[in-house]
Design goal:
Elements lengths: L1 H32 L1 H12 E6 L6 E2 L5 E13 L1 H6 L3 H12 L5 H16 L11 E2 L9 H18 L7 E10 L7 H4 L1 E2 L5 E3 H5 L1 H4 L4 E6 L12 E4 L6 E4 L3 H18 L3 E8 L4 E8 L18 H4 L1 E2 L6 H10 L8 E3 L2 E4 L2 E4 L8 E3 H6 L3 H12 L1 H10 L23 H7 L7 E2 H12 L3 E3 L4 E5 L6 E4 L4 E4 L3 H16 L17 E10 L6 E14 L6 E8 L14 H16 L8 H9 L2 E3 L8 H9 L4 E5 L7 E3 L5 E3 L3 E5 L16 H11 L2 E5 L3 E10 L2 E9 L1 H5 L3 E4 L2 E4 L5 H5 L29
Parallel strand pairs: 2-10, 27-30, 31-33
Antiparallel strand pairs: 1-8, 2-3, 3-4, 3-5, 6-7, 8-9, 10-20, 11-12, 11-25, 13-18, 14-17, 15-16, 19-22, 20-21, 23-24, 24-25, 26-29, 28-30, 32-33, 34-35
Helix pairs in contact: 4-5, 4-6, 10-19, 12-14, 12-15, 12-18, 14-16
Length: 781
């Protein structure tokens, strides 16, 4: 027994000893070997990490008007159980569908109602409703205006049910990318989708600059997720994205889009494009492509509308390319404008080449040949005078066949591949080779600026919005001197006659009274893939010009691909040149470029105009503001309903002059009403539009005769009908309160107040009042 007891004791003791050794080993393994890893896992259980997303950088124009920004957004979330318990399923379905549906299609509304109803009725495997459902994509990241409608619907339902409790309808706060101009500059800006992923344009190529860096917030919590008292909190703030300032001028961009929209509707081209630059720097002032799209509703985009044709599409340029041949001949001293040649046709090796007027105009001068856009004249200049080698040298010097280097994605180089004499001959007038709109723009700018080929650019600078530090800044870059300054000046005078000669100039419809305009039309028969040679009845129509010739401030290129010319290509002059005239005339007035047409009395008054800086009117009543500005000779107009001034235009510190107008905003909340702008100048009307945050478009020229307001998608649009001053004075009269008055006339104060820096373009018009052009507010919010 004693022996058995000893053996049993030894066995038990051995087991306990092994257990103790195992326990100690395990403790060592857990606390020493795995200690750090287990501690981190434990911390993960009691600590909460929250990612803090940065604000994406804003894209602004040259005057800091916003083109793309992050804005508040909301996602609609529903609690099906609460909605079913309240017995308001159908009320919620119809109410939300009516708000979220933006289509005019009744079928789309029914489909959305069924979609919401299905989401609310769907159950899990255990028979219970889902705790929360979202209405995507219609209810995902909606804007503030739509969210306000849903809040109003919720209140109305609560009033009907006589309850203040939750109805199971929630608006989750988020952020989304917003483009205040809608379609404005869409192909250039591109867009980000609702996931925040950049898809195209500058949003994609500059994503690393715009997106910023995530931050985080970490704190200790209990098992219910509640932050512990005196808990350790770690906070790393997000680093917001950088802002991008473009060379674009939002006002000029609007003028371009408004003018091209008319062309697009009238001639229905396959595509339509335009680019405006400052020829002295090659800063891009505006860039338009049609068909267009609204990046705020990118899912409605047609595939053909997301191409930036200005840089990504190449065409046979046609007669606009004659600039190269002309400049080369002038530079080499080979162009005699009075020398005669036989127009009509010319034979080069085995090919006979014709003028667009096949029979020609007889024996005419080379200058007349330029005005009439004679192909034969340029074949003779290029082949007989310059010769193939020198012609090719000038084509290369003007930058054709290579990319311009513009800071936009998708640029193509064009094709220059002449081998046979006939190919060199057709290249003299822009056929048998291809070029892009931006290449031709750079070539014409080289003539406008005194002979310097410059690199076009659109990104002015990248800067930190918090510190103002400029991270990257672009400066004008000269690539090479292509012709002498004297040659450039001479070529400009010849191109001016293409526009000013109203008898035979092909560009005569681009003529702007009061300004010297130089330009050239282009009409090229189109080569279509799969077809042999040129396609019958398919044309590329263009116009390139700049003004004023003596000191060019703006150069505009317009190209229409396959416009509907009703079978008559001679109508090509009606497509681009009138649009050029509208864009440039508005832009020159906006830029403050003086016209040569001016009343002597207006000049005298302008010289006597005194200037001062606008005071701060914030907090004053309208009466006080008017009394303050009366001593400056400035008229004050109020917008909105309120007792105190909350904003003003022009802002404080801006230079003001006698006779101009100042606008003050009195309303703090809600949409500002659109005031009656009848009789105002276009500049004043655009300023009012900017203040009340509506998009403004105009038809005609002169002063506002009438206006209409409509809603397009997410923005209000005001259409202004303009008429010349003398027509408004002759407007029909009507009886009102026993008195006879005209229905529309320019503001009577304008005819007696001193003129602004922008003189009138017609002798019968009074000078437009308003800000110094550089300070005029944008016409769109």
């Amino acid at each position: 027994m004693t022996k058995k007891v000893k053996m049993r004791s030894l066995l038990i003791g051995g087991v306990f000893t092994l257990f103790f050794i195992a326990l100690v080993s395990r403790l060592y393994w857990v606390q020493v070997v795995q200690g750090a890893d287990l501690l981190s896992q434990a911390q993960a259980r009691w600590e909460t990490d929250k990612v803090l997303h940065p604000v994406r950088g804003t894209i602004v124009d040259r005057n800091d008007k916003i083109l793309a920004e992050d804005a508040p957004a909301f996602t609609v979330a529903l609690n099906p159980q609460i909605i079913h318990d309240k017995k308001i399923v159908e009320e919620v379905v119809k109410g939300l569908a009516g708000i979220l549906n933006t289509s005019n299609d009744p079928g789309a509304l029914s489909a959305l109602e069924e979609k919401i109803r299905t989401r609310l009725n769907k159950k899990r495997d255990d028979g219970s409703y889902y705790p929360q459902v979202e209405i995507r994509n219609e209810g995902w990241k909606i804007d503030v205006a739509m969210a306000d409608q849903i809040k109003k619907m919720i209140v109305e339902l609560q009033n009907t049910l006589e309850t203040k409790k939750s109805l199971g309808i929630y608006l989750l706060e988020e952020r989304k990318r917003f483009y205040p101009g809608g379609q404005l500059l869409a192909q250039v800006l591109g867009y980000t989708d609702k996931e925040g992923k950049p898809i195209m344009g500058l949003e994609k190529t500059l994503d690393n600059q715009l997106k910023g860096v995530d931050g985080w917030l970490s704190y200790e919590k209990d098992r219910y997720g509640v932050e512990l008292p005196d808990a350790k909190v770690t906070f790393q703030p997000p680093s917001n994205g950088n802002n991008i300032r473009l060379t674009i001028d939002k006002n000029i961009q609007f003028y371009m889009e408004n003018a091209l929209e008319k062309v697009y509707k009238k001639y229905n081209p396959k595509s339509l494009m335009a680019v405006a630059v400052d020829p002295s720097t090659m800063e891009v002032l505006g860039m338009v492509n049609m068909p267009n799209f609204n990046p705020n509703r990118y899912w409605e985009t047609r595939e053909s509308s997301d191409v930036n044709h200005v840089v990504a599409s190449q065409y046979e340029p046609g007669s606009t390319f004659k600039l190269v041949t002309l400049a080369g001949a002038v530079e080499e001293g080979l162009f005699n404008p009075e020398e005669k040649y036989q127009s009509g046709s010319i034979v080069v090796t085995d090919r006979r080449l014709h003028d667009h007027n096949i029979t020609g105009w007889g024996k005419i001068s080379y200058l007349e040949g330029l005005k009439r856009s004679s192909n034969v004249a340029f074949v003779k200049l290029g082949m007989e005078k310059l010769g193939q080698d020198r012609l090719r040298q000038y084509i290369d010097k003007f930058g054709f066949g290579v990319k311009t280097g513009i800071d936009l994605p998708g640029e193509v180089a064009g094709i220059i591949n002449m081998k046979r004499p006939s190919e060199f001959a057709t290249s003299t007038y822009g056929q048998g080779m291809t070029a892009t709109a931006i290449q031709q723009t750079a070539a014409y700018a080289a003539i406008a600026n005194g002979g310097k080929l410059m690199q076009p650019y659109l990104i002015k600078e990248i800067y930190n919005p918090s510190t103002g530090e400029v991270i990257e800044k672009k400066e004008p870059k000269v690539i090479r001197q292509v012709v002498s300054e004297s040659t450039a000046t001479q070529v400009s005078t010849y191109l001016e006659q293409v526009v000013s000669d109203q008898a035979m100039g092909t560009g005569r419809k681009a003529y702007i009274e009061g300004y010297r305009v130089a330009g050239k039309t282009g009409t090229a028969n189109k080569v279509v893939a799969g077809e042999k040679g040129y396609a019958e009845g398919k044309w590329v129509i263009s116009f390139i010009g700049y003004a004023p010739v003596e000191n060019p401030k703006i150069l505009v290129t317009i190209i229409a691909d396959e416009p509907d010319l009703k079978g008559d290509y001679h109508l090509g002059g009606d497509v681009a040149a009138p649009a050029f005239k509208e864009i440039v005339s508005q832009s020159l007035r906006y830029m403050g470029v003086p016209s040569t047409v001016q009343q002597p009395q207006q000049v005298q008054v302008t010289e006597q105009t005194s200037h001062a800086n606008a005071p701060d009117l914030t907090g004053q009543t309208v009466e006080e503001a008017r009394a303050t500005m009366n001593k400056y000779g400035v008229v004050v107009d109020s917008i909105g309903k309120g007792s105190k001034v909350i904003a003003q235009s022009p802002p404080k510190g801006t230079q003001i002059a006698q006779g101009q107008r100042m606008y003050v905003v009195l309303q703090e909340e809600g949409e500002l009403p659109v005031p009656d702008m009848t009789g105002k100048s276009l500049r004043d009307a655009l300023e009012v539009c900017a203040i009340v945050k509506v998009r403004c478009q105009s038809t005609g020229e002169g002063y506002v005769a009438s206006q209409t307001t409509s809603v397009e998608g997410e923005e209000r649009v005001v259409t202004l009908q303009l008429k010349p001053y003398n027509e408004l004075l002759q407007a029909p009269v009507q009886e009102k309160d026993g008195k006879t008055e005209t229905t529309a006339k320019p503001d009577s104060k304008k005819t007696t107040q001193p003129a602004s820096k922008t003189p009138a373009t017609k002798p019968t018009q009074p000078a437009a009042t308003g800000n110094s052009p550089a300070k005029v507010a944008a016409n769109t919010p």
